[in-house]
């Protein structure tokens, strides 16, 4: 919790006001029983109407001030907590955005979503309660005990028995609940994971007839969360009647012994009434503390989960002293004896890869499944860092450039075309938010997307569903290509970005790209030989090793792996 307290610093004024106003509210609550005892013992018993009116007016003023303080404290606490939650969520999101793919996998997307939403809310509620209760509960308990003793010392001996009894009851109930809150959050994670997998994989689930199985998975996760929640709520439900029972017993004991003292003439009625209120306030303070005991474990569990994410230092960091790429270079990409291994993998994904590609050149990468094609491409924008060797862009190791400068030089089209909810125009402008509508339309023309865009209701302003669910695979790929083109970068990376296109559209697109991206450095990962047959250089990967490099004709004559790829596609009709 202390590690997260820095997110309250911008709201120091509001926090200070909450503490002061809560103090004022508590003091007014402690002062009212004393005034009431005066009205009963002096005003009513002596028949002094003027005294009753005067003290009653004073009680009204104190009550009004206490109420205003309570309202103002709630307002300031709400402002502070809203800002605290906003800042914490923003910090979490910004931090997670820097993670590499395998850092995402450490907890999973669903868990990160829960930590950013549900866990932040739990911590927010805990901090809000602590701000109010950390002043109110101790002050009311200590003030109530002090005033009860000054009201009647002998009757205060009742508290010596009642407070330990209540403390023991709370301890026994809470002993079971402390471990349940961590389990509860993990069950929320599990339910969110199952739900997310079902929503994103709905088509696969239906096509394989696995809906009953997935309903069973969800039912199991839902039931486990429900069972844990029931245990938590049962404990909370047990606490309240237990505390109320002890409070009522305390009142009964006070009235019993207090009545005896009134009969003997050693205690006045008003003082007994004030004492009963002080005992009630003390018990109420203890009850507030018990509620805090319920909130603190769950809030601490959520805080630990948030801190786990915030304290994970991303592997990809900007250098302390960044360099600038050489002036006059137009997008030279060079691999020098590059090797890379995924964390936990037994074998390297790439081993000793070296090549160079410059402006105006198209370098294609081909190979079997798992040969390291996409890995090679992902090392250029520094989604991963090499284990050995170096990747250079315009003569500078990518690890010596800031990520912002490096990626500003690159137009990237991922293997899986990812689109965002919004219009077609907004999705294409994701590559360059300052792009004019004319530039966007030109990029769509080059990407061979204008034809289907014009058929959409609204054209370039047509809405794209989340993930591009209302578009086909080929349409999504063409929009992703247009998004990269509008960036006007010096380096373009196409990671198997033509796989969903028919041969005719593929050919037209490659022809348009050749005219559009002439001065740029182009690297293309492809599965189909047709897509790369005209490349200036083709790199052939096999089990992470570069086993061939040259033009299509050169590789046909010298590279057995390439010959095998061409032969397999020719026999299957994949080469037109």
Please give a structural write-up.
The protein is an alpha/beta fold and 576 residues long. The chain is built from 19 helices and twelve strands. The chain folds into two domains: 254 residues, Up-down Bundle (ABC transporter transmembrane region fold); 240 residues, 3-Layer(aba) Sandwich (Rossmann fold). A six-stranded mixed sheet has the order 6-9-10-3-11-12. Strand 11 and strand 12 form a beta hairpin. Helix 4 packs antiparallel against helix 9 and helix 5 runs antiparallel to helix 8. The two termini are 63 Å apart.
Short note summarizing the structure:
The chain is an alpha/beta fold and 576 residues long. It contains 19 helices and twelve strands.
- Name of the level-1 CATH class of the largest domain: Mainly Alpha
Number of strands: 12
Number of domains: 2
- Rg measurement, Å: 35 Å
At CATH level 2, the architecture of the largest domain is: Up-down Bundle
Given as residue ranges, the uncertain stretches (5+ residues, pLDDT < 50) are: none
DSSP helix count?
A: 19
Structural class: alpha/beta
Quick one: CATH superfamily of the largest domain? ABC transporter type 1, transmembrane domain
Task: Describe the secondary structure blueprint for this structure.
Blueprint: H1 12-46, H2 49-96, H3 101-105, H4 109-151, H5 157-177, H6 180-200, H7 202-207, H8 211-264, H9 269-310, E1 333-340, E2 350-357, E3 362-367, H10 373-378, E4 388-393, E5 396-397, H11 403-408, E6 410-413, E7 422-423, H12 424-428, H13 437-446, H14 450-455, E8 463-464, H15 473-485, E9 491-495, H16 503-516, E10 521-525, H17 529-532, E11 537-542, E12 545-550, H18 552-558, H19 560-572
Parallel strand pairs: 3-10, 3-11, 6-9, 9-10
Antiparallel strand pairs: 1-2, 1-4, 4-5, 7-8, 11-12
Helix pairs in contact: 1-2, 1-4, 1-9, 2-4, 4-6, 4-9, 5-8, 5-9, 6-8, 6-9, 8-9, 13-15, 18-19
């Amino acid at each position: 919790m202390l590690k997260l307290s820095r997110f309250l610093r911008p709201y120091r004024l509001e926090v200070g006001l909450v503490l002061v106003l809560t103090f004022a509210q508590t003091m007014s609550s402690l002062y009212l029983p004393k005034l009431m005892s005066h009205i009963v013992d002096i005003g009513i018993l002596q028949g002094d109407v003027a005294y009753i009116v005067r003290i009653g007016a004073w009680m009204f003023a104190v009550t009004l001030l206490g109420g205003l303080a309570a309202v103002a404290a709630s307002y300031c606490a709400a402002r502070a907590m809203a800002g605290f939650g906003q800042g914490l969520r923003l910090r979490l999101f910004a931090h997670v955005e820097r993670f590499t793919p395998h850092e995402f996998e450490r907890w999973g997307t669903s868990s990160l979503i829960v930590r950013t939403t549900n866990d932040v809310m739990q911590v927010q509620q805990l901090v809000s309660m602590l701000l109010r209760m950390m002043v109110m509960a101790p002050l009311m308990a200590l003030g109530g005990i002090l005033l009860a003793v000054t009201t009647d010392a002998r009757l205060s001996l009742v508290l010596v028995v009642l407070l330990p009894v209540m403390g023991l009851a709370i301890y026994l109930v809470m002993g079971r609940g402390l471990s349940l809150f961590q389990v509860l959050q993990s069950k929320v994670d599990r339910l969110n994971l199952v739900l997310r997998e079902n929503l994103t994989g709905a088509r696969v689930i239906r096509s394989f007839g696995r809906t009953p199985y997935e309903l069973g998975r969800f039912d199991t996760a839902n039931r486990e969360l429900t069972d844990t929640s029931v245990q938590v709520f049962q404990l909370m439900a047990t606490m309240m009647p237990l505390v109320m029972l002890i409070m009522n017993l305390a009142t009964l004991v006070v009235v019993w012994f207090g009545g005896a003292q009134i009969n003997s003439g050693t205690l006045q009625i008003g003082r007994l009434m004030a004492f009963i209120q002080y005992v009630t306030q003390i018990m109420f303070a203890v009850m507030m503390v018990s509620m805090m005991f319920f909130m603190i474990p769950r809030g601490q569990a959520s805080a630990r989960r948030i801190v786990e994410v915030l304290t994970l230092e991303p592997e990809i960091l900007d250098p302390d002293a960044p360099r600038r790429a050489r002036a006059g270079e137009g997008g030279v990409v060079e691999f020098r004896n590059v090797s890379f291994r995924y964390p936990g993998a037994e074998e390297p994904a790439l081993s000793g890869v070296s090549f160079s590609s410059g402006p105006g050149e198209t370098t294609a990468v081909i190979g079997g499944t798992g040969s390291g094609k996409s890995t090679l491409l992902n090392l250029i924008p520094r989604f991963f860092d090499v284990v050995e060797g170096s990747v250079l862009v315009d003569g500078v190791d990518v690890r010596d450039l800031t990520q912002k400068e490096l990626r500003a030089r690159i137009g990237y089209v991922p293997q899986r075309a990812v689109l965002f909810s919004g219009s077609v125009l907004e999705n294409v402008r994701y590559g360059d938010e300052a792009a004019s509508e004319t530039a966007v339309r030109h990029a769509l023309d080059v990407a061979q997307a204008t034809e289907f865009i014009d058929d959409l209701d609204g054209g370039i302003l047509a809405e794209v569903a989340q993930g591009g669910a209302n578009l086909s695979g080929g349409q999504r790929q063409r929009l992703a290509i247009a998004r990269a083109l509008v960036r006007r970068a010096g380096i373009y990376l196409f990671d198997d970005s033509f796989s969903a296109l028919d041969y005719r559209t593929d050919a037209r697109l490659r022809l348009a790209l050749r005219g559009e991206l002439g001065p740029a450095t182009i690297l293309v990962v492809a599965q189909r030989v047709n897509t790369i047959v005209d490349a200036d250089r083709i790199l052939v990967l096999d089990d992470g090793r570069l086993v061939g490099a040259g033009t299509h004709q050169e590789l046909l004559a010298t590279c057995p792996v390439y010959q095998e790829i061409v032969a397999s596609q020719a026999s299957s009709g994949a080469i037109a």
